[in-house]
Amino acid sequence: MSERVEAMFERPRSAEELVGLYDQLSVPHFQRGLVWDTRSIALLLESLFQNTPCGAVILWAAPDADQQGVALGRSPRFLIVDGQQRIRSLYGVLKGDEGSRDDPWFEDEAEAQDTGGDGPAGGAPHDRRVWCLNLGQVRELQDRFPGGRRYRLFRRARDPRRDRSNAGLHGAPLRDMEALLPLNWFLTCDDAQILELVGFDGNRALEKAARAVLDHPDVKSRLRQMLKRPAFQVSVIGPERSLPEVVGIYNRINSSGKRVEAEERAFAGLVSAYHDAPSHLTEFFDSVHPRSMDTNPDPRDLKRDGLLRRQKEGRYGFKLFMRAFAIVLAYHSSRSIGSSSFSFEALTPDLLAKAEKHLTSMLDETVRVLERTADVLRRVMRCDDFRMLPDTESLWPVFQLFTRFPGIDGSLDGRLGSIVLRLVLGRMQKKDVLRLCADISRTQGLNG
Q: Which residue range is the domain that position 213 belongs to?
């Protein structure tokens, strides 16, 4: 790493500087997808507005950064070990890239709660939404904008500049609207340009909000500086570190909290041992959820977000993939997946290293097991929406059955459908499900 790059990270960096690195950044394969919702982004913006430190960002200057992950820009140089959610969220806010309705932070419960009761600020799902400052939560101005008191300081709402002539609007709807001001105006425009925009729109509510901020030096300064103040401590892991070492750092960072789950840590370890693991995950999703993988020509729209996204997958997604793989690996390694709770202990670095030559076949088998189970659910049980499944724990014995007896053919569809139906409706306790998995693993025949 050059001295110039080292010097770049000697002091805390601003959000603007962090976003300036976007073209050189890549998301490593072991990372989870983009999972932040509007509430998380709003809190980050509030921290920047209040001049609060926003934590550490860790990058890895891997010698083959273009091969180790999915590039965010055109010149990948650093892999994001910690800070992906903050960097990519800030990029969307700063660049005005509001994304499509498939973006994970725009379809979640927090978003629905935030905009569902907005009246004029809600609108149809196709309405363009932008990030706005809510003056009803700005201490110096809140008395003048009571309509915004029930919302957060920063809101992603329907663009207050669109279809807002305010003709015929009175009372609460107008009070709600007049508390909103597009954030990007103060991040990209000077005072004269903002006044010109207000004059062009002819929007009384918007003009009131804009002039309130322009006439208040302290509020205007906080807005103008929120992305320019140093807020992030950036550290770089040198190119001498290996992938397993960096994955170890990633797991240690996230092991103390609940934000990165067991399946995600297990996937990171799998990628460390077998770089092509993400392609098998893609194969599974393309096969089982073909309509969920909408393509987007925008290179910033990472397909892997769709793979790892929990909101889109229903119950039959990433977590279940990792549990099915754990069952397959444990069976072929003569291990147990647990007796009282599901365990990923079979996915230890040592065991994965020993199984390295067989990981391709075991991941292929995992995909087949999931495909065959999905086929039984859809074709035999007429389950056309996996989100309606009461749980997925009940499917573990089915995975064990297909793993133990890979030669099961269509002639047993009736019996399989009956088994799956009993499991799904049986509401068995987890320990009983695990005991059944162990029994299937030990049995000598389908009639045993």
A: 3-232
- Kindly list the distances between the CA atom of residue 304 and the CA atoms of 163, 165, 284, 298, 366, in Å, as whole numbers in the listed order: 36, 41, 12, 14, 19
- Spatial neighbors of 407 by CB under 8 A, at least 6 apart, are none
256 domain residue, yes or no: no
- Tell whether pTM > 0.85: no
Q: CB–CB of 236/60 below 8 Å? A: yes
Contact 160, 182 (CB under 8 A): yes
Name 180's bridge partners: 134
Question: Are 224 and 269 part of one and the same domain?
Answer: no
**CB-hemisphere CA count at 13 Å for 346?**
21
Same domain? 82 vs 17:
yes
Q: Which amino acid is at 376?
A: V
Beta strands in 160-292 (DSSP E): 180-182, 230-237
DSSP tag of 139: T
**Do residues 54 and 183 share a domain?**
yes
Rounded Cα distance, 361 and 366, in Å: 9
Residue 49 lies inside a defined structural domain of this protein:
yes
Q: Which two tokens stand for residue 31?
A: 């990372």
Residues 37 and 113 grouped into a single domain: yes
**Looking at the domain assignment, is residue 243 inside a domain?**
no
pLDDT per residue over 141-197, tens digit each?
A: 888 888 777 788 998 887 776 644 444 444 444 555 678 888 888 888 888 888 887
Among 9, 69, 2, residue whose Cα is nearest residue 243: 69
Q: Do residues 25 and 152 share a domain?
A: yes
Judge whether 374 and 315 are in contact, CB under 8 Å.
no
Q: Indicate whether 239 belongs to any domain.
A: no
Number of compact structural domains in the chain? 2
Work out the angle at residue 25's Cα, subtended by the Cα atoms of residues 22 and 26, and round it to the nearest 5 degrees: 135
As a whole number of angstroms, the distance between CA 226 and CA 50 comes to: 8
One domain, residues 225 and 322: no
Domain match, 213 and 274 both: no
Distance, CA of 121 to CA of 155 (rounded, Å): 10
Residues 283, 370: one domain?
Answer: yes
Q: Give the number of other Cβ atoms within 10 Å of residue 405's Cβ.
A: 13
Q: How does pLDDT run across 314-346, given as a tens digit for each residue?
A: 678 888 999 999 999 999 998 889 888 888 888
Q: How far apart are CA 212 and CA 210, in angstroms?
A: 5
